[in-house]
Amino acid sequence: MAGEWQRMPLGDFVTLQRGHDLPDERRRPGHVPILGSFGITGWHDEAKAPGPGVTVGRSGASFGVVSYSACDYWPLNTALYVIDFHGNDERFAYYFLKQFDFRGYNSGSAQPSLNRNFIHPVSVEVPSKDEQRAIANILGTLDDKIELNRRMSETLEAMARALFKSWFVDFDPVRAQAEGRDPGLPQPLADLFPARLVDSELGEIPEGWEVGTLSEVVEQLRDGENPLESLDAVFRHFSIPAFDDGQWPKQELGESIKSLKSRVPPGVVLLSKLNPEIERVWLVDVEPGDRAICSTEFVVLVPRAPHGRSFVYCLARSPLFRQELKGLVTGTSKSHQRAQASSLLGLSIIQPSPAVARAFTQQAEPMLARAVACRRESQILAAIRDVLLPKLIAGELQVNDATTFAESVMS
What we know:
By secondary structure, the chain is an alpha+beta fold.
């Protein structure tokens, strides 16, 4: 432990207080984040606490979950929040509390519950203000880059989906040419689109395009694998929980995976058939040679030429497709409704001309490839942050060493 670190009660480092109630009927549209037990749960037009701020989930599954707000915010009563940092660095306090073991201070019985009076007297060791700022800068730089990557990935995916909607849902280039307007595309690309809409069983579609089924655009891969036959092998496991937790597969040994899975090769799209009202479409990041598997709740879709992965991904996320998919569900339990893969593959879709399908892939694939690369980089940065965090907070790693390491990774 560094010599400049001081021992004090946690309540002298930060003072915590229970948050404030804000029923749904009192919430008004605005840009102030509402921080509940798991972080941001909505937005309001009024702040109750100045930023930067830190909250700690105080009960149930959120017990000890720590969140950060850089701006003014409203802390809900499902969390404790810091009302006084006592001059300490706010972001360091966030990382410090993330590393703090709240589990030993449960004031509840059947359900875990956090009471500030139980934790304020706990003795902790904290560094000087200068070292706090240095530690917060190292970890914050990593988190800032992760957040930037998240926004970039979302923007790139939104751009690809907007292009899909323009070309294959609204038929903007076709309508523009039919009305004698400039479609806003380079001439060789504009020439690929017809200048007329015709009737079909799905309504008006561009002349020369066809109504087909999803099975004409994708092939369902049915290769199975039993991880228990390879106990020591490391698998990249694309599961439903992994999708919900940031869309990144977990590294797991075969011995820990107890059921049959589907193989996941490069270039596929995973579409969940479980509870279709929840949109789970996974643009997977798999390299040749990866031992990748997924839950059998996913349908593994391989694009059929000339349709590329980007076309299949955007189609599977388009509102009309999602609506049709929801209509296929079977099962009476709300939590275990499924769409049958055979029915899914029979859904009617609009098929563009091969030339337009190829052109879309050329436009959209670089956007989505970059979005996947952003997610990949963020996972690497998060792993580095998670290694540095406990060592820096415990004083086991010097700031200079951690800075050099982080800079080498970020460069």
